[in-house]
Amino acid sequence: MLYLVGLGLSYKSDITVRGLEAVRKCSRVYLEHYTSVLMAASQEDLESFYGKPVILADRELVESGSDKILTNADKEDVAFLVVGDPLGATTHTDLVLRAKRQNIAVEIVHNASIMNAVGSCGLQLYQFGQTISMVFFTENWRPDSWYDKIMENRKIGLHTLVLLDIKVKEQSIENLARGRPIFEPPRYMSVSQCCEQLLEIEEKRGTKAYTPDTPAVAVSRLGSASQHFKAGTIKELSQYDAGEPLHSLVILGRQCHELELEYLLEFADDREKLRADVLADQEYFKPAPWVPPAEEEDSD
Ligand SMILES: C[S@@+](CC[C@H](N)C(=O)[O-])C[C@H]1O[C@@H](n2cnc3c(N)ncnc32)[C@H](O)[C@@H]1O
């Protein structure tokens, strides 16, 4: 059996009881180690908690070497651990499909994900549209296809969850070209860098999917002891230090409900300013006001 086990967002003890029971009976345990990190537990912490070795699985192993992970999984139990939910945000459906093609049974043990825990910022999950990923811009690679998705979400009033890039075990172009297995230190995009990139692309596109004054919420280290929320405009958050990773951002949709706003005000430096910013932002994309048809002329 291949078990895909969600670890939850932060602590080694966030694993579910069913997940822990599965891990304890597995002969090999892999930890997916390139799309997210468990903030309050190291590899060693997990190993002593589970009472067995944990193998770190980088992108290469999962995407190109998955046969290694699946070796003998038709005869013994293998666990593939994913921070958050195994099918939340990053879906590991490819691994599931490969396992099924080899007649390996698969069981998925779910857990909390950034995709649902983000509701703790006070915005209602029902009011979220398409989630987007923001990657680190380089000098000559500044992808902005996500801009259209924000536009679509905002046009119909929905909030946008922005997940931020993580670079773990990346090689510099030079080391890659020379085949040197030297890896850069891990990098995690911050809320401020994400907001700077948002502002740069709005300036370039100029079609006002959002503006520097559009309200947003910085979400840091959700589910950990130091989790924190900050509500402000995109411009304000581009200068905000959200501290240690992991960070996410939510760009507000224009139909912010009064209860959502009340919750958000708790996270604002200046409550009255945030209220005014949210109300002003809601004017964007409003459908034209309904005008009653002209009354038909009385014919007699
Ligand atoms: C590609 S997603 C992986 C999501 C994970 N599988 C899950 O279900 O939560 C990783 C990104 O989600 C966001 N994220 C994940 N956990 C977070 C947390 N606890 N607090 C804030 N952002 C988080 C960060 O932007 C991070 O770079």
UniProtKB/TrEMBL annotation:
Catalytic activity, EC: 2.1.1.314
Domain Tetrapyrrole methylase: from-to ranges: 1-237
InterPro entries per record: 4pyrrol_Mease (IPR000878), 4pyrrol_Methylase_sf (IPR035996), 4pyrrole_Mease_sub1 (IPR014777), 4pyrrole_Mease_sub2 (IPR014776), Dphthn_synthase (IPR004551)
Transmembrane segments: none
Positions bound to S-adenosyl-L-methionine: 9, 85, 88, 113-114, 164, 222, 247
Superkingdom of origin organism: Eukaryota
Pfam families: TP_methylase (PF00590)
Record pathway: Protein modification; peptidyl-diphthamide biosynthesis
Coiled-coil features, chain-numbered ranges: none
Enzyme class: transferase
GO biological process: methylation; protein histidyl modification to diphthamide
Biological role: S-adenosyl-L-methionine-dependent methyltransferase that catalyzes four methylations of the modified target histidine residue in translation elongation factor 2 (EF-2), to form an intermediate called diphthine methyl ester. The four successive methylation reactions represent the second step of diphthamide biosynthesis.
Entries under PANTHER family matching the protein: DIPHTHINE METHYL ESTER SYNTHASE (PTHR10882:SF0), DIPHTHINE SYNTHASE (PTHR10882)
Protein name (Swiss-Prot/TrEMBL): diphthine methyl ester synthase
Organism the protein comes from: Zygosaccharomyces mellis
Lineage: Eukaryota, Fungi, Dikarya, Ascomycota, Saccharomycotina
Name of encoding gene: DPH5
